[in-house]
Every structure is written in structure tokens, then in C-alpha cells.
Design goal:
The protein is mainly α. It contains six helices and no strands.
Length: about 100
């Protein structure tokens, strides 16, 4: 796992107070969120990752539920404030192999 992905997974487990939270996204959920906030559509993500549109949509919605987010705009804000939008594109290939 690349250092940037590992750091992002750690960030997702931390709340604003710096205490470990119960929120933990799977690698696939994190991958979908990262690609979505980078500007890709659900269809484009599904095609790139060789998964169905329904699977990608479910993974995105599950991640949002785990994070307590209701709108895509909240997901974009969360990703920006937690550095998910800045992960290198090379991380996607690493994650999709798992």
C-alpha cells in the first residue's frame, strides 16, 4: 500500500478531535470516493475498474453512509479537507489489484 493511501486510510479513522473513530472505509470504497471526487462519473469509474455501475454506486453510497454524509457536495468537501482529492493517480492501479 502506498504511503499516500495508507495516510488517507488513517485520516478516515480520525475524527476532528484526533481520536480514533469507528469509521473505516474499505480500500474499494476509498478508491471509488477518490475517483469520484477527482471528477469521474459513476459510469466512468465502473468502466475503468471493470465493475458494474450498481457496484460502484453502492460502494460510493456505503462510504458516504459510513462517513455520515448525505450529499455529493458534502463528500467533495470531506475529500478536500482530508486530502483524498490529492492522492496520486498511480494509487488507483495499486488499489484495484486487491
Amino acid at each position: 500500500m502506498s504511503p499516500s493511501v495508507k495516510a488517507s486510510l488513517e485520516t478516515l479513522r480520525m475524527n476532528a478531535g484526533g481520536k480514533t473513530d469507528e469509521v473505516m472505509l474499505s480500500k474499494r470504497e476509498l478508491e471509488v470516493v477518490r475517483l469520484f471526487v477527482s471528477g469521474m462519473t459513476i459510469k466512468e469509474i465502473a468502466e475503468q475498474l471493470n465493475r458494474s455501475i450498481k457496484t460502484i454506486s453502492t460502494q460510493k453510497n456505503t462510504a458516504m453512509r459510513k462517513l455520515g454524509l448525505e450529499r455529493d457536495s458534502e463528500l467533495f468537501q470531506y475529500a478536500q479537507s482530508n486530502g483524498l482529492a490529492n492522492l496520486s493517480s498511480g494509487s488507483a492501479g495499486e488499489l484495484s489489484d486487491q
